[in-house]
Design goal:
Bound molecules: zinc ion
Shape: flat
Number of domains: 2
Structural class: mainly alpha
Oligomer: single chain
Number of strands: 0
Helix content: over 70%
Length: about 150
Amino acid sequence: MLTESEKTQIREVLEEAKQRLARTGQHALSYSMNHERNIGRDSIDESMEEEIFSTEMRLHDREKYLLSKIDKQLARLDSGFIDTCESCGEVISFKRLLARPVTTLCIDCKEQDEREEAAVEQAGRGGALDASAGEEMGGAGATSDE
Ligand SMILES: [Zn+2]
């Protein structure tokens, strides 16, 4: 269980992250408004402009995703479950929460998660390699038959 002062510290970190995101969100908005104004100006390379615009929008999506994570975490904080691991129900340490305020997993579950992800990735790569090696051998055989 977190103490009141620990909770306050986590809340401050989360609120600060939220405000930072809100500010960058504002930036994306003002950019898209400038974008409207800039249409029709010859000096601007349109494809370049489009590229910047879509990057801004991607960033904006990421901001929205992060904001939703922060809101979820603030709700967990309010209900007193912020230091409870979503996966195993063990306590997430205050130090970990302070370092990664949007985490909902304890360090053990997080590591487990990453190991599994790495294992899946490894298996995927291995499979693809085997398949392409087989194809190559088949190709070589066909050539020598000619
Ligand atoms: Zn856990």
